[in-house]
Design a protein that fits this description.
Layout (H helix, E strand, L loop, with lengths): L1 H34 L15 E5 L2 E5 L8 E3 L10 H5 L11 E9 L11 H12 L9 E8 L10 H15 L3 E3 L8 E5 L3 E2 L4 E2 L8 E6 L5 E7 L7 E7 L5 E8 L6 H14 L17
Length: 293
């Protein structure tokens, strides 16, 4: 009888200890939760949450309907990375301090609008796809990718890119780029071998090997805008890259060459779009967000 009583007594003591341990865990969890700041998460009128993170050293809140494909964070595995390390990867909690690697969206060159799903701009985009592209008319939308620059030693200019391009063309294609006497829309203009194919001594016919190069430098001689444009065929595209003056961010936008003349306004508008997404450290909105109705 005494042995049974001792067994019950031990079980009761063990239960009490487990209960006390559980209470202590709950207390610690509560204290941790109290220490973590409550993040403001904004939604659009359809209930879609903004994507948040840090871009160019600033906290941002990006309307969910604006993101075209993804918001990728620093450290995220690539889309096609099937390694064991990628499978085990666990992203840190998403906060306004978690660095974004890149984001993408669609931008309308004619008026600076951002395409947002389920809004008028998406209807416009689909209509332009359906009507303008089959007719070979200039498509007014540009595909835009914004890259975060987190390496403090990375130069925020295209000087090396231009030098590397020139050297590669000499080694592989055996031609050079020559600066043209007249600027184009205020941009310094370079043509491959002055527009002549060195193998035939005839006008250049390959828009892949020798695209036109257009650039703009700042007062310090840094190439801050670097544009490669096709010049052959009905659909001539430009790959336009530029750095912002006030943030370590690289922007790339591709569009029909018809809209090259809008390059300065395009840069200004995209800078304004990104600035509209900047929030306080706790996520409070500062300005009306571009792309959110």
């Amino acid at each position: 009888m005494k042995s049974i009583f001792k067994l019950y007594f031990k079980l009761i003591c063990l239960s009490c200890l487990l209960l006390l341990a559980g209470c202590d865990d709950d207390k610690q969890a509560g204290e941790k939760a109290a220490q973590q700041p409550v993040l403001a998460r904004h939604q659009d009128r359809f209930g879609r949450y903004d994507s948040i993170g840090n871009l160019g050293g600033k906290p941002v809140s990006i309307p969910g309907g604006v993101v075209f494909t993804w918001v990728r964070y620093i450290g995220d595995p690539g889309d096609f990375d099937s390694s064991k390390q990628a499978q085990k990867y666990q992203r840190p909690p998403i906060t306004y301090q978690l660095p974004i690697e890149d984001i993408d969206f669609q931008y309308r060159l004619t008026d600076g609008a951002v395409k947002t799903r389920r809004e008028q701009t998406e209807e416009d985009y689909l209509r332009d796809n359906r009507t303008l592209i089959p007719q070979g008319k200039p498509f007014p939308w540009g595909y835009t990718i914004v890259y975060n620059i987190v390496d403090p030693h990375q130069p925020l200019n295209f000087n090396k890119a231009f030098t590397d391009t020139q050297e590669a063309k000499k080694e592989v294609w055996h031609f050079e780029y020559f600066e043209q006497p007249q600027k184009v829309h205020g941009l310094t203009f370079f043509k491959a071998n002055n527009g002549i194919d060195p193998s035939t001594n005839q006008p250049w016919q390959d828009n892949i090997a020798g695209p036109d190069i257009l650039m703009s430098k700042n007062a310090q001689g840094e190439i801050k805008t670097y544009i490669l444009c096709d010049f052959i065929g009905e659909v001539q595209q430009c790959n336009h890259r530029f750095y912002l003056d006030n943030l370590p961010i690289l922007i790339r936008i591709t569009y029909n060459r018809q809209y090259l003349k809008l390059w300065q306004q395009t840069q200004k508008n995209i800078a304004g779009i990104l600035d509209s997404w900047v929030v306080t450290d706790k996520g409070a909105l500062i300005k009306k967000q571009a792309g959110k109705v």
